[in-house]
Amino acid sequence: MMGFFNSILKHFSSEKKEEVKEIKFNEIENWLNSWSEKNVEHTTIKLAKIKKDLTEEKIKLKENLDLLADATLKNPNIPEKAKHFMEGNRENYLLRSKIISQKTNLPEDFNEILEFCRSFDKDLDDFGKGTARSYQVMQEFFANESRAIASQIAKFDRLVKEAEQVVNSSGTETVSELRSKIQKIVSLNKQKEELGDKVKLKKDQLSESKNNLEKLRKEIKNKQEDVAYQKIIELRKEKETLSEKIKSMEDQLSLSFSVIGTALKKYERLSLDANLVNNYLENPVKSLLADSEFKVIELFDKMKNSIEKGDIDLKDKKKVKSLQEISKFTKDYLESYVLQYNKLKQNKEKLKSEIDNAKIVGEVKELKDELNQLEKDIEVTENELESTVKKLDAIDIEDLKKDFQNKFREVTGNKVVF
Questions:
Q1: What does the pLDDT look like over 124-135, one tens digit per residue?
Q2: Closest alpha carbon to 371 in 202, 223, 203
Q3: Cβ atoms 29, 182 nearer than 8 A
Q4: For residue 225, which phi and psi values (nearest 5 degrees)?
Q5: Domain limits of the chain?
Q6: According to DSSP H, which parts of 260-358 are helical?
Q7: pTM, two decimal places
C-alpha cells in the first residue's frame, strides 16, 4: 500500500514542486474533486496512448498470425503423420493467439480496467499453459513466425501492466477511500453533536426535575406542619388505638373458642344445629355479630349438659377448662361484648370517614403521588443520561481524523485542517 501512495506522490512531485497547502476540512470535498479531475485528465491521456499502442500491436499480431497461417514447410518431404501433427499444433496456436488478442480490450472505466488487468493475468496464464506444447512444435517448423507472435503477446502483457500501473497511480481508489473516510468523519461528528445536545438536554431536564422535587418536598412539609394536618395525625392515632382494641376483643373471643374447640367439634356430631356450630368454629366474632338472637347461649347450655353427662368424651383437665370457659358466655357477657365491639367499629369508621374526607389529606396525597412520579422520572432520565454519555464516550473521532490527515498528506502532499 505504501508503494501505491509513493507512486502517487512521485507522479505529482515530478510535475511541479509545490509548498504544502493547508486545506480546511469543510473545503476538502471540493478540493478533492478538483484534484481528482486533474488526475483523471492525466490518466485518460496516458491510457489513450496505451490503447493506441495496443491497437497497433494487435494489427501487427494479425499480420504475424497471417504469416504463420500461410507459412510453408522448408522441407516438404517430411512424413504425413508429422505434417498432421504440425498442422494440429499450428491451428491450436493460431486459435488461442486470436482469442487472447480479442480479449485485449481496455475498458473505459478505471475500476473496470483494474478488474480487467487482474482477469487478463489469468487469461495469459491459461494461454501459456494451453500453447506451451504447440509453441515448441512451431519452433521446430516455423521458428521466426511463432517467435514473432509470442513477442507481440508479451507486448500485450507489458501494455496491460502499464495500464494497471497508470490507473493505480491515478489515485482513483484512494480518492474513494478518502471520500469514504470523510463521510464517516462527518457522520460520526454529527452523531457526536446530536448526542452532546441530548446530554445537555437530559442534564437540563434533571436540573429542572430536581428543583421541582425540592419544591414539592417543601410544599408537602408545609402541608404536614399545618394545624389541620396535625389534627388528622391525632385522629389517625385514635383510629389506630381503636383498631388495636378491636383486635384485642377479636383475639379474646377467638382464644375462648380455641379452649372449647375440641368439645365444640365433638358436639357438632351430636347437635341438630351443626351449621351454627360450624360457623362459630370457623369465625367466632363474625358468627356472634350475626347471631342477633344469641342462639349460641342455648347451644352452650346443651353442650354443657352433654359434657356433664359424658356424651362428649373429654379428658379431665380439658373437661374442667371447657366447662369454665362455657360458663363465661352468659347473655349479659355476650350482649356487652357485641355492644362494645360495634361501638368501637362505629367510632373507627367515623374517624376513617373524617380522615378520608379531610381536604388537606387529599392535597398531601396528590403531592406525594406527584413526588413519587417525579422521583421515577428522575431515575429514568438519569439512566438515559448515563447511557447517552457512554455512547458519546465510545465515539473515537480523533483517531479517525489523525488517520485521515496522515493519508491525505501522504497522497496529496498537503495538510488538512479540522
A1: 999 999 999 999
A2: 223
A3: yes
A4: -85, -5
A5: 19-170, 220-388
A6: 261-270, 274-282, 284-290, 295-309, 316-328, 331-356
A7: 0.48
